[in-house]
Every structure is written in structure tokens, then in C-alpha cells.
Design a protein that fits this description.
Order of helices and strands: HEHEHEHEHHEHEHHEEEHEEHH
Strand order of the largest sheet: 7-6-5-4-3-2-1-10
Number of strands: 11
Helix content: 40-55%
CATH superfamily: Divalent-metal-dependent TIM barrel enzymes
Number of domains: 1
Distance between the termini: 43 Å
Shape: globular
CATH topology: TIM Barrel
Length: about 350
């Protein structure tokens, strides 16, 4: 390449990058709901679609197969027609697809069959992704550590590559319940094949895995094709720290900055709120036994950044619905309140 061509190429690349950032800056943030935010309702898919539409949301993420009444073509087409009529884009997911995880359940066949069913449902419903996950943090304590489970998850994903590519559906892997840190999920995606696999990013679960949500976003943002988001409060205690998830705008994450950077790194991808609030998780990192799932991590800059994050917060009360006949109604009201404050905050501040 001669000097003229090199300079032209560099200028074009810079212009393309500037245009991309300008488009992201001018783009409207798409806001949606992950149905699990209002799990206490016990609703099926059609009710979740109507609820998302009533809040004037852009998307409705049905993140578990159990929310569907069946998988017959007529039923799924009816849901798609309902969503289209209400102006709601559907996203579809399932749970664990790792056969060695403690969370695996063969409800819909083996892991390969479960993921295949999710891909086919996603196609019928117009979802661009089929979401799944590996497991939870307990998997890090097993023989072989998390890497063994990562390899099994990759195997299941690769078994569905031709189906996913043939249907035009990308497989989205969530960082779930502290199972994988961002560098591990990034490696999984690259090994499986980033042409048809991406991340379902979850900043709340990132905090459980001792990562600062903004740093987590920087690494996984370019791989992100789906999201399930909430805020987090954290505070120090004598054993290390305590984490409690919150509604968006009520925790430590600068969600205005998070959303802006999200739109730059993952343009066109919605922020789908999955509030799972009201309970505290001890993170007793000052205890030696805490480090078995994360060997060597305490010496990293990433951990130091997470500790600094936890030092900014204050203790907040947990939620417990009162016992008695109104307990379920109280749980539903609490979950709806967390979700609705979150989506309202995003609409008003981003």
C-alpha cells in the first residue's frame, strides 16, 4: 500500500468511526422488559406482551420457554401478530444449556434439543436472538472449574450452528448469576464463533462476579446482541462487601453514562430491564474460602476496581412481602414498581 492509499484508508476509517459514534449519539435508546422482572405475576407470554405495550416499551424479552403455552406454529404466530400490532419487538430465550452445570434441567430434551427449540421459537416470533446461559457461580467450585463447563457449553452451541445460521438467528449467551467473568464469556463467544454467537450482557450479574459494570461493558459491549439489566447497590462490611440489586437509577451504576456507552458499543440493541431486587448477597472476599472459585483474581486491577465500586455505596433494607393472604399481591406490586421506575428513569435520563 503506498502512502496516498494508506492516508485515504486511515481517513476513511476515522470518518466511519466518527459517523458510527454520531449515529449512536443521535439514536433513540430502545428500552424493553425482560419478563423475569415481574415473575411473581405468573403471566404467560401474551400477558407480558400486553404489559410491555401498556408501558410503551420497545421490546419484550420472553427469557424462559416455560412462559409459552406451547410451541405450535399457530400459537407462536398469534403471539408475533399480537406483538406486531402493539408495536413491541420480541426477544426469546431459555435457561441453562450446559449439561454439566448444577442448574441444568432436561425439561425440553437434552441441551442441544433445548437450544434448537429456542432457535426455532425465536425464528417464528421474529426474535433476532435465542438466549441461553451456562449456569451459576456454584459451577466454578466443581472439578475442572468453570472451564470444563465452558467447553461443554461451546459443544452444545456448535451442535446448533447450522440451525442458527440457517434460520438467521444469533445465539446470545448471558453472564448468569456470577458464572463467568467478562473475559471468560468473550473467549467462549470467540471459540464458538462470533459470526453467530454473542453476549446477553447483564451488569447486575457482573457485580456478582466481582466486576465493575462499566469495565464489564467495555469488554463485552462489542459482542453484545441482547441485554438484561438492573442497577446495583453495594457497601462494605467486616467480611468484605454486600451487594443488593436495585431499580435502574437507584444504585451505584451511572446508568446515563452506561446507556450512552452501550449505544456506542452495541448500536441498535435494546436495554431490557430485568429487576431482581430486594435481597442482599454477602461477598465475603476477606475470607480465604471465598477465593476458591476465583483463584488469583484478588491480585488483579479488575478486582481493585470492583472493591472501589463497593466502597461508594451504603446499606439499604431488603424487601420482604408480609405473610398472609396479600403476600403475592405485595410481591407483584413490588416487582412492577421496580420495573416501572427503571424504564421511566431510562426514558427521562438517556
Amino acid at each position: 500500500m503506498n502512502r496516498r492509499h494508506f492516508l485515504q484508508s486511515t481517513a476513511l476509517s476515522a470518518a466511519s468511526l466518527s459517523t458510527s459514534r454520531l449515529q449512536a449519539a443521535n439514536a433513540k435508546l430502545m428500552v424493553g422488559i425482560d419478563h423475569f422482572a415481574v415473575r411473581a405475576t405468573g403471566w404467560k407470554a401474551a400477558q407480558h406482551i400486553d404489559y410491555a405495550a401498556s408501558l410503551k416499551l420497545d421490546t419484550c424479552f420472553i427469557s424462559e420457554l416455560s412462559v409459552f403455552e406451547n410451541f405450535e406454529d399457530d400459537y407462536l404466530q398469534g403471539l408475533k401478530d399480537q406483538a406486531d400490532k402493539r408495536g413491541v419487538k420480541l426477544y426469546v430465550g431459555t435457561g441453562c444449556v450446559c449439561p454439566t452445570s448444577n442448574t441444568w434441567k432436561p425439561t425440553y430434551g437434552n441441551p442441544e434439543e433445548t437450544l434448537a427449540l429456542t432457535i426455532r421459537a425465536a425464528k417464528k416470533l421474529g426474535s433476532p436472538v435465542a438466549r441461553c446461559y451456562l449456569g451459576n457461580q456454584k459451577d466454578r467450585n466443581t472439578d475442572g472449574g468453570i472451564q470444563k463447563h465452558i467447553e461443554e457449553t461451546i459443544r452444545v452451541i456448535k451442535a446448533n450452528r447450522s440451525l442458527a445460521e440457517g434460520e438467521g438467528i444469533k445465539i446470545a449467551i448471558e453472564n448468569h448469576a456470577g458464572d463467568m467473568q467478562s473475559h471468560e464469556l468473550k473467549s467462549l463467544i470467540e471459540e464458538a464463533g462470533k459470526s453467530y454467537v454473542g453476549a446477553n450482557i447483564d451488569p447486575g450479574n457482573a457485580v456478582w462476579a466481582m466486576e465493575d459494570p462499566m469495565a464489564h461493558l467495555e469488554l463485552l459491549g462489542p459482542y453484545t446482541i441482547c441485554s438484561s439489566v438492573r442497577d446495583s447497590m453495594a457497601w462494605e462490611d467486616e467480611n468484605g462487601a454486600v451487594v443488593q440489586w436495585t431499580a435502574v437509577g437507584e444504585g451505584l451504576v451511572d446508568f446515563a453514562a452506561y446507556a450512552k456507552r452501550f449505544m456506542e458499543l452495541a448500536p441498535g440493541i435494546p436495554l431490557q430491564v430485568e429487576t431482581i431486587s430486594g435481597f442482599a448477597k454477602p461477598m465475603s472476599w476477606k475470607q480465604d474460602e471465598f477465593w476458591k472459585p476465583f483463584p488469583g483474581y484478588q491480585d488483579t486491577e479488575s478486582f481493585k476496581r470492583w472493591v472501589a465500586f463497593t466502597q461508594k455505596g451504603k446499606a439499604i433494607p431488603s424487601f420482604k412481602a408480609p405473610d398472609g393472604a396479600g403476600k403475592k399481591d405485595a410481591e407483584i406490586a413490588y416487582q412492577k414498581g421496580e420495573l416501572e421506575r427503571s424504564t421511566k428513569w431510562l426514558r427521562e435520563h438517556v
